[in-house]
Amino acid sequence: MLVADGFPDFSICGLPFYVSDEVHQPSALAHRTGAPLAEHGIEVLLHHSATELRPAERTVLVRGSDGHEQSMRYDTVVIATGARPRRARIEGEDLAGVHHLHTVADGIQLRARVDGGRLDRVAIVGAGYIGLEMADAFVRRGLHVTLLSRSATVLPTLDPSLGELLRVELERHGVAVETGVAVRQVSSAQERLRVQADAGSSYGADLVLLAAGVEPNSDLARSAGVALGLHGAIRVDRRMRTNVPGVLAAGDCVETWHRLLARPAYLPLGTTAHKQGRIAGETAAGGTREFQGSLGTQVVKVFELAAARTGLREAEARAAGLYLVTVETEPWDHKVYYPGARRLHIRITGDRRSGRLLGAQIVGDWRAEAAKRIDIFATAIHNGLNMDDLNDLDLSYTPPLGAPWDAIQEAAQAWSIS
């Protein structure tokens, strides 16, 4: 296994919580180091990069940390180069004080800047998952945060009505939220940064975090003649095979089979990467298991709220030519007479003709089990259930934790009578 840095098995998703100091040491995010991997028969070469793939020879050119290059033979190679931060394409994005958060080194560097105690104001460009988690992290560290979003709402992977709930939560914790803002330039003057946007608006900051999303890191594959697909991601079949014999690929660098649409999509998610990696490994070892597809199931915690989604949003379902109806409800997470009951905002989309569930979104207090409830919706979509099937599910109930009809079933009932 060739690893470009020194971290062979590391939770990148945990980096915002290291910056926030909810996780105190970066080593806590390291699942396994080289020695345990070696015990399982995996030879790990840290600080080694694959610089060229030569399929005709079945070799890969490898460069070590000392600059020395060597050629290694393979029977099967798995490309798992992941994604990289999407360039914001704004002037000044390479200035000192402008950061990304994508690698372990990024997280350590960003944490060191915050620990240094010379920061007061932070500007975040991008209001997706990383942007929201980092707004939370910086506020926890006592910093003033401005969140700048090109989209009309924060977290545009949710429908606008739910994105507005997140905006309110961010502002309740002191985050200045600016939506519909296109950043044009970052400039530096007198040890401070200034973010300049369209319409002449500008924002001062001691640190700027660019969180404009990711793109597939597929350069190695492309140079070897491997076919690319959506957004430049590596095109693979459901056994993670590319068009080049002996070359497999998995993770954030590849296209994803969308289970509901039955066609490729680009959905770079850690859960998907884990499943694809297992399939690629089994294929390399002679197995025949196929990747069963992704629904884009996601959840994020923002201060006291959790926001989750799975399947298709209304606009996505309409673009797919489906005859749909979307209904938004606000059921309680458990029986109201038991203290601490909280509203869940649930938005579900279904096919009007068949009643099939197409997508679901939930926003609510993070203690109200939005994450587990979105998993029930995801399971239902994965298995082609309709709204009546949701009502037939035998779900658990006790007054402190739920109701005889769970919140997701109440939402399905509201959809059915709409």
CATH secondary-structure class of the largest domain: Alpha Beta
Global structural class: alpha/beta
Give me the Rg, rounded: 23 Å
Q: Strand-residue fraction?
A: 25-35%
Which descriptor suits the 3D outline? globular
**How many DSSP helices?**
11
Helix content bin: 10-25%
| Average pLDDT | 94
Biggest sheet record? 5 strands, parallel
Poorly predicted sequence stretches spanning 5 or more consecutive residues = none
Strand order of the largest sheet: 8-15-9-10-11
Short description:
With 418 residues, the chain is of the alpha/beta class.
List keywords for this structure.
418 residues, alpha/beta, FAD/NAD(P)-binding domain, Enolase-like, domain 1, 3 domains, five-stranded parallel sheet, five-stranded antiparallel sheet, 11 helices, 27% strand, globular
Report on the architecture of this protein.
The chain is of the alpha/beta class. It has eleven helices and 24 strands. The termini are far apart. It is 25% helix and 27% strand. The longest helix is centred in the middle third of the chain and has 15 residues, at 270-284. The strands form eight sheets. It has a five-stranded parallel beta sheet with strand order 8-15-9-10-11, with helices on one face. The chain is globular. It has three domains: 2-84 and 215-284, FAD/NAD(P)-binding domain (3-Layer(bba) Sandwich), CATH 3.50.50; 87-212, FAD/NAD(P)-binding domain, CATH 3.50.50.60; 304-416, Enolase-like, domain 1. A hairpin with a 2-residue loop joins strand 12 (183-189) and strand 13 (192-197). 38% of the residues are buried.
